[in-house]
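Example 309.
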Amino acid sequence: MKIRVLGAAAGGGFPQWNCNHPNSRRAREHDPAAKQRTQSSIALSQDGKDWFLFNASPDLRQQIQDNVVLHPQQDLRHSPIKGAVLINADVDHAAGLLNLRESQPLRLYATQRVLDVLAANTIFNVLNPKFVTREAMTLDTALELKKPDGSSMGLKIIPFAVPGKVALWLEDASKGDNFGSVDEDTIALEVEDMESGAKFFYMPACARLTDELAERISGTDLIFFDGTLWVDDEMIREGVGVKTGQRMGHMSVSGSEGTMASLQDLDIKRKIFIHINTTNPILLDDSEERKIVEEAGWEVSYDGMEIEL
Ligand code: MLT
Ligand code: MN
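Predicted structure in complex with D-malate:
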């Protein structure tokens, strides 16, 4: 199974368009130690030929340009992209679908909750329903990813709920502290290559590592995990925002309740941060925080990162 990181940054990308924080400035100035990153997405293939997107980032057009394996290969209209799986309806994970307009056969998987959001926003009908099949995923139920022609991608996924919340743009303050969020709003995926049996977890959003989740991911070869913020109040501290990570549905990398501490005793071979916010110092190759995560056995993903499992 081939995994390619299309976008390693969180919503807004690195640098975010309106961010003038020193980290963003370094990225904007093409400082080699502050590599620019597009918004959160990976692509996956069993045979290296046909690919599935896991999340469709608003930067998808650029991501396709930057990854030759995603270029058309034959005929006048073709794409190696056979479909997409969405883990939530966040702008950074769903808006990229609009790049996939035109009459191109695709298969789209999401929870019913997220499919309902897409259905309610008729702009997504640019994905011509005659060519794009939408399929609901059931939590905790294994599903074989299929190409639009019904043949198998050779990949199986198990979607499962993680602590989190409904997309920012769908928050309903009248519904209490969790803004009306339900289990199907934020999920993670266990992915399996049906030929080799290789498995990994994809968890770009997670607000808390419950005991149940810790048990689920323990023993895996590889995990991509939510690396949004270094500390919970980072955006407030840095003077660029008013929300904590918890308020946004993300756990932080550092701290006693943070990701490094929560995962340190779990048996996981390779741990990679993804969905990293423009303010997070782990984005900088020369930061103290980068050194700390690397010493704790973590990698920081970057656009174009390739993994073969
Ligand atoms: C998030 O991950 O918290 C969201 O993508 C935030 C946003 O929509 O800007
Ligand atoms: Mn996001």
